[in-house]
Design brief:
This protein is 20% helix and 30% strand. The strands form 3 sheets. It has a 7-stranded mixed beta barrel with strand order 5-12-9-10-7-6-13.
Length: 208
Amino acid sequence: MTGARIVPCGDDALRLVTCASDDRHLIADVLRNSGSWREVVVGRESVTVQFDPLDLPPPAARDLLENTVSVGLSGQQAVQPVVTLTVNAEEASAPDLSGCAEANGCTIEEFLSRLHHSRLRVDMLGFAPGFAYVSGVDQSLRGGRLENPRQRVPAGSIGFIEGYLGIYALEGPGGWPIIGRTNAILFDKSAPDPFLLSAGTRLQIEWA
């Protein structure tokens, strides 16, 4: 890892601003496994750690962060789970799919194929509980948010904007154009980890 910088976040947190080539999820795993931090949070371009300044003064925390990442990443390869989601792309489940395809000058089948062959990974969980921001979407595909957000988006819905998919683990409002819906159980309150998707999870989309 080269060129990353560390930025203080108050008295008890440090943010490691990463480079485009850095694997933030692998860095976060190394930091969590070290047991040195109260919390480790992955952002879109950073990894933030929280510490107890009474036990670990900020200068020492900074040194520890640098050393842990440098030593921990040596010779390691990212090992991340792969989740395959079967997604229904019929009109009732994908009300905005035809519009997205048309806006990109391709057929629905071509649009779905380009998503299927994208190297998808959950970048982070966002604005609603379990909502997954998925990066790696074919960069040639264009699209923005809806002008009028929906008040109700069913759980399992898959949204698309330029560069990302957004997966709704729970029903709720949302402004992403919806291009499909999966019947996979994305939220199971009885499970130790109730959400199926987490930051770093690699995805494969299969269209029903």
